[in-house]
Design a protein that fits this description.
By secondary structure, this protein is α+β, with helices and mostly antiparallel strands. It is 17% helix and 33% strand. The protein contains 6 helices and 19 strands. The strands form 3 sheets. Strands 2, 3, 4, 5, 10, 12, 13, 15, 18 and 19 form a 10-stranded mixed beta sheet that branches. Strands 9, 11, 14, 16 and 17 form a 5-stranded antiparallel beta sheet that branches. Strands 1, 6, 7 and 8 form a 4-stranded mixed beta sheet that branches.
């Protein structure tokens, strides 16, 4: 039996999964932990549906600049085609615990009225796979749920990413739980098995960038044709990090995703405005600041980063949007590293523009 046969078996068990939550581990359960820096709070993430399925014993621990409640962070990827992993395989249960959980679910399913046909045959094959060494070409079966190796490894199983909106992608990790010895990595055919890059991508998904307000001069009320200076001080414009780690007996991984500020883009909120530079993209300075603070006597100068409104906002305001672009890199266990698409986070500021041609300041 080849991989397509194994996948077919997984599809055949879909009905069983939907009814009893046997093979899929869903996320997440979260609990707050102390923050490791000033940007966010750590969380703990673990698999397992409420009361009806099997719980993963492995937990993904988040720390650093991450959301407090396990929700998605505030970073938007510059690549619309990049998404966090929709699912993955992670350490699940030891052999004895797995036998207890899985055998109970199998027996319950077998005794369910109407559980026949393809689903019934799939349940029988799954039972043989774990009890009677029924396997296929690249996947050997197990004898008595591998209990003779209890403590020497763990069964791994699928975990769904609850933030993935596409149910087909979220449930695409549909292989049956498989055994991995302590100190070993999963077979290469399980491409979605948790690894440093997947951990780093999850840290990216939960990353919380600082809510930095751009300094402006004038701050909230400016004048028509008067340059408004914009800047970010290096003291509040630092790189941030988010870490994801998993640690169970015989298996441990850790990855840190780092966001480094690159530029600031200004969008005036009206076409009747000019930006400085013309692109509206203010690059980072050598001292890691952006723009230049306004100083007395510079009212007639063009700011290195800023804008100029060409008409009044009347009785209202213009919504100035300041978006910071961040370079996203990661490092992980064993020297693994790489880059993800740049991230962005924007903030709106209300600007009133008065109909006065010039002013002394």
């Amino acid at each position: 039996m080849n991989r397509s046969r194994r996948s077919a078996l997984g599809v055949g068990i879909t009905a069983l999964t939907l009814a009893f939550g046997v093979t899929a581990l869903t996320e997440p359960a979260y609990s707050a932990e102390p923050s490791s820096n000033n940007h966010g709070a750590g969380t703990v993430e673990e698999g397992g549906p409420d009361g009806t399925g099997i719980y993963a014993s492995a937990k993904i621990q988040y720390s650093g600049s991450v959301t407090k409640n396990g929700s998605k962070g505030n970073v938007t990827s510059s690549d619309v085609n990049w998404t966090p992993p929709p699912c993955w395989y992670a350490p699940y249960l030891g052999a004895k615990d797995f036998k207890k959980k899985m055998s109970e679910q199998i027996e319950s399913a077998k005794n369910t009225p109407g559980m026949g046909g393809t689903a019934g045959a799939a349940i029988g094959e799954m039972q043989r796979h774990y009890e009677d060494e029924y396997g296929w070409t690249d996947t050997p079966g197990y004898k008595d749920y591998n209990v003779e190796k209890d403590g020497e490894g763990m069964f791994w199983a699928a975990v769904e990413n609850p933030d993935e909106p596409d149910v087909l992608k979220r449930s695409s990790c549909n292989d049956l739980p498989f055994w991995v010895d302590n100190g070993e990595t999963p077979p290469a055919r399980y491409e979605e098995a948790i690894n440093p890059k997947i951990l780093a991508a999850l840290a990216y998904q939960h990353m919380q960038l600082p809510d930095t307000k751009v300094s402006l001069a004038p701050e909230t009320i400016t004048k028509v044709n008067l340059p408004t200076w914009a800047w970010l001080d290096k003291a509040v414009f630092n790189e941030v990090q988010a870490t994801a780690a998993i640690n169970v007996p015989g298996f441990s991984l850790r990855s840190t995703t780092t966001a480094k500020p690159l530029s600031l883009k200004l969008e005036p909120g009206t076409t009747d405005a000019e930006t400085f530079p013309a692109s509206g993209e203010c690059v980072i300075n050598a001292d890691h600041s952006i723009g230049e603070p306004y100083a007395q006597g510079k009212s007639d100068e063009i700011p290195p980063c800023g804008l100029k409104y060409l008409r009044s906002s009347g009785n209202g305001t213009f919504k100035l949007r300041a978006t910071i672009t961040w370079e996203i890199t990661w490092t992980g266990t064993g020297g693994a590293d790489g880059r993800f698409p740049d991230g962005a986070f924007g903030k709106d500021q209300q600007i009133a523009v008065q109909e006065i041609q010039s002013v002394n300041r």
